[in-house]
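Box S2. Input/output pair 1.
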Amino acid sequence: MSGMVTEVRPPRRDEMAAYYRALPCANGLPSWEPADAAWHGGPEPWPPQRTPASAEQLEKLAAADIENESFHPIATFVDGECVGASATISFEVTVPGGRTARMAGVTATGVIATHRRRGYLRQMVQAMFEAAWERGEPLAMLSASEGSIYGRFGFSPATYRTRWELARHEAALLPAEPDPGSLELVDAAQAKTAWPRVHAEVRAHRVGELSPLPGRWDGLSDEADGTNGPLRFLAHRDKHGDVDGIANFRLPWSPTADRAGTLVVEALEATNSVAYRALWGLLIDFDLTKTVVAPGRPRDEPLRWMLTNPRAMRITRQTDNLWARLLDVPRALTQRSYLAPGSLNFTIDDDQMWPANNGTWHMKADDAVATCVPTDGTADLTITLSALSSLYFGGMSAQNLAHAGHITAHADGAIGHLARMFWTDPEPHNSFGF
């Protein structure tokens, strides 16, 4: 290995095919822990087996990525050979208080099997952190393909998602006021127009939700997808005729009786509770079906509280969704608002990849403005960078993190005060990965 020349840098245009070949997904290799995934509606484990991408497919992907200004690839080259690849995508993410923060979404990461355990992943992650910081992105997020990898880089779970099932014969809704709007089955062209508008309004109020990737809904189609059947679209219009809710669902065929009659809700968003209730009201009582399956849903799905029997909604799978990592602690903390006003002195002393975050910080928050500056004062608590990253979106328990040793209190009541300041209701959630 001596004398090898190692470079960690963005790939050139003529190196993009080699860049993709360093990624498991391009080679038909496992790219995720085999699991009963909470974002998959079928009974089988996810992900399915994939075939290696062709040269033509890689070229098409490269052409699209090069044109995408929000896509930032990074690669490791050893003696000119690409042995590792990753990328970040620039997003905006909604933070507590309804504001948005710029975020680097880490995606598509791999090191070829013959070059693992040599620190190449850490070098690429460090390079991505530095580039994100220079772009003014104070935090990074990712979906962890393997739960034991990314904690060592400061990432920690920040949002969750669930898959639930509901038997149709148990799916009765509590009485409610009549709906002044209407439901309509629409085609893919209408859905493509409705989804961006509905998502934009939902995203403005949902902590953890992301700005959509370019072409997010371009793939919606009325064509059948093998035995899954065609994707179908249900829209809700308010009393003025404007779409304020939409759902994508399938009625897949099953070769076995136990899975027959299943309706899978692949996505559902509504800008208000009336539209939300109306959409679910039809989908959980669809003719000639037995079971409703909804993957990728919030852990605190409001529908449960609309049912006459809340136990009828059974969570069958649950997993962490996005993991967060603060890159610029003071900037990130001042971009969100806080439920309870107050101030805290806290110490971070474990950030090896971004030492500027280490030290004691004085954070003060009121209804509209938060500040975070270095201080020589006594710390109320010491917190790991990963714990602070988990708390950032308000969906994790400060008490649990303290019990696990990630937070140490130095003053009475400090953990409770931290919990009250950072808490968010409802829990953070994002509806799609990257």
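Box S3. Input/output pair 2.
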Amino acid sequence: MYQTYVFDLYGTLIDIETDEEAPEVWEKLALHFGYHGMTVTGAELQEKFLLERDVQLAEAAENCQFPDFVMEEVFRSLARQWGVEPSEAWLQETVRWLRTLSMIHISLYDGVPEILQSLREQGKKVFLLSNGQKTFIEAELTMLDILDKFDGIAISSVAGVSKPDPLFYHYLADTYGADLSAAIMIGNDPRTDIAGANNVGMDSCYIHTVSSPSNMEVSSNVQIWDGDIRQIPGWEK
């Protein structure tokens, strides 16, 4: 049986729905900028954000196939366009504002705390490997009371690389000592979680949830469970 369990986060442990494309999100975020002397419309702010994000992704792509960016650095660059040198506190606040404004729903899937606790009580190593931004991932793990349930938390914005890039899986091993040779990857995305794990020789378990991509096939040698993470192998005592 597996000694190491590597979990995806969103759509696997956390049921979440966001809408960062909604115009009202950017209109409200523009007010946040205006409070600090940076006058901009919501549409202009969204356009500037996307352009700067893409610039930073392009720069990061020089070092890996599937890069990621740091949202604080995007907002730092935008603030400087108004001649403002933002504080770290303001940058983190702005990232959290964008996340909060775009949030529609967030909760843990049934059984998540029990599964993570049971695995660790059995002496298994439990890791998180998540694409996303450190600032809101850590906040949401804290809010949902599972931040301390992992032996290591690898986040793509910190690593500068995201799933399915093999470099991200090796980052998990190098940074936290995860033994990938005795590991299983549990995730809800065939391309990022399952194919990514298979590319580094890891077994995988596909959890099909409502946020899983549609019209994507999963290899016949992959364990497949439909919508209930409590079915993953080996967690019960």
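Caption for Box S3: The chain has a mean pLDDT of 92. The chain is about 45% helix and 15% strand.
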